[in-house]
Amino acid sequence: MDKINYELKFLDILKNIQNKPKLLLHSCCAPCSSAVIKRVSEFFDITIIYYNPNIFPKEEYDKRKVEQIRLVKILNVNFLDCDYNSDEFDNAVCGLEAEPEGGKRCNKCFYLRLEKTANMAKQLGYEYFGTTLTISPHKNEQIINQIGAILQEKYKINYLFSDFKKKNGYLNSINLSKEYNLYRQDYCGCKYSKN
Predict the structure, then answer these.
(1) What is the rounded distance in angstroms from the CA atom of residue 177 to the CA atom of residue 181?
(2) pLDDT per residue over 94-145, tens digit each?
């Protein structure tokens, strides 16, 4: 390949990088988002949205948010913070308090957080929305992706279908958590999972 063609090819690559589609990526916590950001940053201009009204108590929410902010600064990713309002979660799961972990209550929680992400992505002009939730071996990626598909139709915005636990995604999140010395919580987030 001659020098001119090589330089043109390189400029085309740079052009494509500058025009990456914008992704509003919901994050439940810094450890889960670490490996996901690393995996998709090659393809998207990422903004992390931190919307987690399910997290209890408020001190735990704040601790996780501080870690998320620290990580996005390290990885040079944009950050969108949402106000903490645990009433939104309580209202969404009302009547499902006795459900087992991983049941209908969790599905409502996924829907609540993904809908906020889809709505904000649409309002703010993003091409895609998605979530880091599918990196967890404790989360059902099929249900999360079904919710994403419903919201994609509702808001007329692309959903990033994923199963981020594949290709050692969860293991990578553990290793990156160690590398960045991230706080790793020992429960999903809500008062029911804490119990």
Answers:
(1) 6
(2) 999 999 989 999 999 999 999 999 999 999 999 999 999 999 999 999 999 9
- 5 pLDDT exceeds 50? no
Task: State CA 21 to chain mean position distance.
Answer: 16
Integer angstrom CA distances of residue 110 from 55, 133, 181: 13, 8, 27
Specify the pLDDT at position 10.
45
Query: CB–CB of 141/134 below 8 Å?
Result: yes
Dig out the tokens for 132 from the structure.
């880091």
100-132 in b/e form (b: 16+ CB < 10 A) is: eeeeebbbbbbbbbbbbbbbbbbeeebebbbbb
- Chain segment 51-104, per-residue pLDDT in tens: 999 999 999 999 999 999 999 999 999 999 999 999 999 999 999 999 998 999
Between CA 60 and CA 37, with CA 44 as vertex, the angle to 5 degrees is 35
How many other β-carbons are positioned within 10 Å of the β-carbon of residue 192? Answer: 21
